[in-house]
What does this fold into?
Amino acid sequence: VGRLHLTRGDAIFTQEERTTIAHLSPHLAVSVDLIAESDTRLRLLDEAEALLEVGRATAALLDPSEVVARGLDVISRYLPFPTQFAVFGDPDGETGSWRFLGARVPESPKLFALERLRLSPADLGEERAQAILCGDSSFAADAQVETNVIGEMANQFGVRALLAVPLRSGDQTLGAVFVCSPRASAGEWTAT
It folds into this structure.
C-alpha cells in the first residue's frame, strides 16, 4: 500500500515503540486500503448515477407520448386554421389496434374516454382503413355523419372536417394522426 515514515526529532525509538508500530502498521495499511476502496466505490456510484440520469433522459425522448406532444406543437404552429389533433399508434401485436398517444384538443372530461380508447383500423370504416393501411391520407368533409367510431368521436368532440394521415415506418402503418376542424369543409380543406 505504501510506506510509513515516523520521525521523532533527535530521539531514537525504543525497541518497545518499534514493536508497537510494527503491530499497528498492518492495521493502518488495512485502513488505507478501505479508504481507497471507499473512494473507488463512491466514484463508481457517481458514474452509475450519471448513467441512470442519461438513461432516463433518453427514455423520456423515446416516450411516444412525449414525441407526439412535441410533434403536435410544431404542426399546429404551421396550420392557418384552428385545429385539433388526436394521435393513435403503437399497434398491439395480437389485435393490431392502436392506443391513444396524445391529443391537442380543448380540455374536456371527455378526453379521459379518448385516452382509454383502443382504435383498430376496422373502426375507421373500410375505405378509410384501407387507405391508411396503404399509406394514403383519408378525408371526411363532415365526420359527424359517419356511422363508425370516427363518427362517434366526431360528435363527442365537436369535430366536423377530418383528415386522417398515416404514421408510417418503411412500408408499415403504425398508426394515424387525425387532424380535425370544428367546421365542416366546403371544399377549401382537402386531403391534398
Q: What stands out?
A: Strands lie at 84-89, 98-104, 118-119, 138-140, 161-169, 172-181. DSSP finds five helices and six strands in the chain. The chain has a mean pLDDT of 75.
